[in-house]
Design the sequence.
């Protein structure tokens, strides 16, 4: 295995590493609603990333947190932070393209990958530090723990019958493409009504855990 191949593999692996190191931001935003991440995905699974609805998707999430979060501003702030925090994934793909097209740039790409790895470690450490400084309310933490245990038990009992829960990459792709595409203020009321109607509809079909 030559140096170019190692550098390409390094760049590819940095993408899931970045998503794992920044997932705590989404988790903190969702926990403020009293939901687990799986419940959040089920409640917002109808939000499409298609170009037809792209300009309205961000406001679905904004209004969702306004409706359900104990601190909507903090939840939305975490989502904005996550959009910025996944930029190292984009940089890793850029370095992959550069080293693939120009093998003589291996040293440049390897240095960049090492810097991106250090950035990811800092992001992960920031999540651990934030959780230590800002612990969840004990009552809310206990409820979330019970929900997580029920979800794990459900997943073990239905292994192979349900899709894997780690589908947050699609949500990140939607967020990063929608941050700059916000609809005019006149559409906010209509979007809020659509979200409420959608959540009520989903509420009748939401999965229940034993």
Sequence:
């Amino acid at each position: 295995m030559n140096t170019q191949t190692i550098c390409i593999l390094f760049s590819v692996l940095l993408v899931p590493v970045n998503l794992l190191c920044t997932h705590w931001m989404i988790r903190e935003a969702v926990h403020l609603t009293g939901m687990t991440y799986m419940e959040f995905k089920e409640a917002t699974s109808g939000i499409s990333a298609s170009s037809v609805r792209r300009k309205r998707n961000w406001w679905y999430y904004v209004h969702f947190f306004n409706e359900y979060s104990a601190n909507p501003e903090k939840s939305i702030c975490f989502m904005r932070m996550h959009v910025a925090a996944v930029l190292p994934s984009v940089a890793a793909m850029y370095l992959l393209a550069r080293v693939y097209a120009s093998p003589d740039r291996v040293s440049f790409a390897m240095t960049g990958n090492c810097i991106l790895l250090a950035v990811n470690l800092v992001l992960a450490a920031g999540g651990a530090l934030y959780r230590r400084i800002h612990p969840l309310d004990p009552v809310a933490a206990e409820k979330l723990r019970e929900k997580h245990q029920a979800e794990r038990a459900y997943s073990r009992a239905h292994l192979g019958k349900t899709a894997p829960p780690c589908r947050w990459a699609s949500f990140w792709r939607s967020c990063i493409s929608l941050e700059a595409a916000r609809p005019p203020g006149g559409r906010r009321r209509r979007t809020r009504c659509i979200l409420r109607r959608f959540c009520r509809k989903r509420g009748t079909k939401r999965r229940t855990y034993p």
User: Anything to note?
Assistant: Residues 160-168, 175-188, 204-210 have pLDDT under 50 and may be disordered. Residues 26 and 79 are 6 Å apart (CA to CA).
